[in-house]
Design goal:
Elements: H1 13-20, E1 21-29, H2 34-37, H3 48-60, E2 65-72, H4 75-103
Antiparallel strand pairs: 1-2
């Protein structure tokens, strides 16, 4: 079973990674639309023109996947990154609770 919650904040992955890691390289690659919808399509029911259009749209879409090569930040930068990873979720949670209390 797929976990739909994995995609909810997927746009934050790279920015969160960069807090604690030095990114040495990034290679984005395809999968914009077809990787998501193709498993749910009946290929035998698609005509050549529609299949070609789907392929063209996929090539124009922003990349859905990326490979990144990164090393952990060390020294003071690493310590600050670990502190941020620990502290930021707690601050966000407190802010949510304060907003709830104000609305109540």
């Amino acid at each position: 079973m797929d976990d739909a919650s994995e995609a909810i904040r997927s746009s934050e992955i790279e920015s969160q990674l960069r807090i604690g890691f030095d990114v040495l390289g990034k290679q984005a690659y395809g999968g914009g639309i077809l990787s998501v919808i193709l498993p749910n399509l009946r290929i035998d029911a698609l005509n050549d023109a529609l299949l070609q259009r789907l392929i063209e749209e996929d090539r124009e879409a922003p990349p859905y996947y990326a490979l990144m090569l990164a090393t952990p930040k060390r020294g003071i930068q690493g310590a600050l990154a670990r502190a941020r990873y620990w502290l930021e979720p707690k601050i966000k949670r407190v802010a949510i609770e304060v907003r709830r209390a104000i609305r109540a």
